[in-house]
């Protein structure tokens, strides 16, 4: 049986005996990629705005719903990634289980999303660094950070894995300390009197702002969790994906519960949602991050500086991850003839340098666009990428649903799967529906009131018609069709 092949049987290179992608990720790397993938500015900064907009109850419900959705998506991705680990998982699974056109569209969508994310993180990092060096040159800092990300990725996949491991450790330790301090403050052991549930029930309810506010927080929560899917891309370079990927996947639900849900509870109990500082907790104002507010209340005067350093590490981590993931998917698409063939070559260390250079150049160009027209070009690029993460998640749900059906259709037994996603088909269907709501509800406010805000609609939804155009355009040019279930390629080796 092909499914029973050795764990290391998948060749990620396929270069006719030439260099291949190195299987250097150990279990600890994949676990930290899974744990640290979504811990960043979404938790450290956006959580305050979420509570201010929808109240602690609304924020808690929104983050819990998205957390459950992400859990199902991760188990779906885990089932496919353990059976056929591939560094170009998004395009490869889309091509095999849906259609070549869908794989082409989802691959380029994923690449664009993370290439532009590099630019966003460069912009954020240059703002954060001004906390210590207010008169320094932003362009020089962005170049330095870009070279750092490029250097970590060009050395080997191990360079990315090790850097993400330590970035994740910093974030996780910070959150754990925050939760411990927060619980001590809730019971009055630190920072004064016990607050109990008074702030959670402010105004007689823990919910605030109504339905549209809740939907807005749901969107923000979705953006916060984006990055958890990177473990699927990293599976192709794992030493033992059939053992290590499930181990990392199993961490997802508990991470969501502990890091996000408990953090929302602590913030909601300690800071009134009417506190105006919560709405001002942006990248350029770390002094009012909810984490900083609570640390200051606890008497930790150095909180702002420490949190600034932690958030800087989170931003660099996101850019580092984006560069790795976008490079690997672009490499895989080049191997499949969906991108220029030259981008499918590896150097002697197993790094797709051509794909890395193109991804780095696009990220830098997008960042440079922020200097033109008051940042209008950059804002367009960033807004266009905002929906791409949800489209990627939609793709995971669709691919897994068809993978499982094709697997059974072709006479395979579920016992052959190294890791089996629970609650099928409910899991991928539930995730698909919530992702679809998130995609369609990106800017519901543009349709409220007496007239439609067409500019807001265009900026918010532009990536959806672009995705459909790429999908159906490729289908029309190449005359491709949906792959019948009994013809889906379930082989676990290339070729």
Write a structural description.
The longest helix has 43 residues, at 41-83. By secondary structure, the protein is mainly α. 65% of the residues lie in helices and 0% in strands. The protein is built from 18 helices and no strands. The chain is globular and about 65 Å long. Helix 2 (41-83) crosses helix 16 and helix 5 (138-155) packs across helix 12 (303-335). It has helices at 27-36, 41-83, 89-97, 100-129, 138-155, 157-186, 210-225, 230-234, 241-270, 276-279, 290-297, 303-335, 353-368, 376-386, 388-409, 426-440, 454-461, 463-478.
Beta-strand fraction estimate:
under 5%
Low-pLDDT segments, ≥5 res = 1-16
Tally of alpha and pi helices:
18
Radius of gyration: 22 Å
Topology, pairings included?
Layout lengths: L26 H10 L4 H43 L5 H9 L2 H30 L8 H18 L1 H30 L23 H16 L4 H5 L6 H30 L5 H4 L10 H8 L5 H33 L17 H16 L7 H11 L1 H22 L16 H15 L13 H8 L1 H16 L17
Give a quick rundown of the structure:
With 495 residues, the chain is mainly α. Helix content is 65%, strand content 0%.
Characteristics:
single chain, mainly alpha, globular
């Amino acid at each position: 049986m092909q499914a029973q092949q050795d764990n290391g049987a998948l060749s990620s290179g396929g270069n006719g005996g030439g260099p291949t992608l190195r299987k250097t990720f150990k279990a600890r790397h994949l676990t930290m990629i899974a744990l640290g993938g979504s811990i960043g500015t979404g938790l450290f900064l956006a959580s305050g705005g979420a509570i201010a907009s929808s109240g602690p109850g609304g924020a808690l419900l929104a983050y819990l719903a998205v957390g459950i959705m992400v859990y199902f998506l991760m188990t779906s991705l885990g089932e496919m990634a353990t059976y056929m680990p591939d560094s170009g998982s998004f395009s490869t699974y889309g091509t095999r289980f849906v259609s070549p056109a869908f794989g082409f569209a989802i691959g380029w969508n994923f690449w664009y999303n993370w290439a532009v994310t590099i630019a966003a993180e460069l912009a954020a990092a240059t703002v954060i660094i001004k906390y210590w060096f207010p008169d320094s040159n932003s362009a020089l800092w962005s170049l330095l950070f870009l070279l750092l990300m490029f250097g970590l990725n060009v050395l080997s996949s191990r360079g990315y894995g090790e850097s993400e491991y330590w970035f994740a450790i910093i974030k996780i330790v910070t959150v754990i300390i925050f939760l411990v301090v927060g619980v001590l403050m809730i019971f009055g052991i630190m920072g004064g009197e016990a607050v109990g549930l008074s702030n959670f029930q402010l105004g007689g309810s823990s919910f605030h702002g109504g339905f549209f506010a809740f939907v807005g927080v749901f969107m923000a929560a979705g953006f916060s969790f984006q990055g958890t899917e990177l473990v699927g891309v990293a599976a192709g370079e794992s030493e033992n994906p059939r053992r290590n990927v499930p181990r990392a996947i199993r961490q997802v639900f508990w991470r969501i519960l502990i890091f996000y849900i408990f953090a929302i509870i602590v913030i909601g109990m300690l800071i009134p949602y009417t506190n105006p500082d919560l709405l001002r907790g942006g990248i350029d104002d770390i002094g009012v991050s909810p984490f900083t507010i609570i640390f200051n209340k606890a008497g930790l005067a150095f909180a702002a500086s420490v949190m600034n350093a932690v958030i800087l590490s989170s931003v660099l981590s996101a850019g580092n991850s984006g560069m790795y993931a976008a490079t690997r998917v672009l490499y895989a698409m080049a191997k499949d003839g969906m991108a220029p063939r030259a981008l499918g070559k590896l150097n002697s260390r197993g790094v797709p340098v051509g794909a890395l250079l193109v991804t780095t150049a696009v990220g830098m160009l997008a960042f440079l666009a922020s200097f033109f027209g008051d940042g209008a070009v950059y804002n367009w690029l960033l807004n266009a990428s905002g929906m791409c993460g949800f489209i990627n998640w939609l793709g995971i749900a669709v691919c897994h649903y068809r993978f499982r059906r094709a697997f059974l259709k072709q006479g395979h037994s579920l016992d052959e799967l190294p890791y089996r996603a629970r609650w099928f088909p409910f899991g991928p269907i539930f995730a698909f529906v919530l992702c679809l709501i998130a995609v369609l509800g990106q800017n519901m406010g543009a349709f409220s009131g007496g007239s439609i805000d067409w500019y807001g609609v265009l900026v918010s939804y532009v990536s959806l018609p672009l995705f459909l155009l790429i999908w159906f355009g490729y289908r029309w040019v190449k005359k491709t069709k949906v792959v019948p279930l009994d013809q889906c390629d379930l082989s676990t080796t290339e070729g």
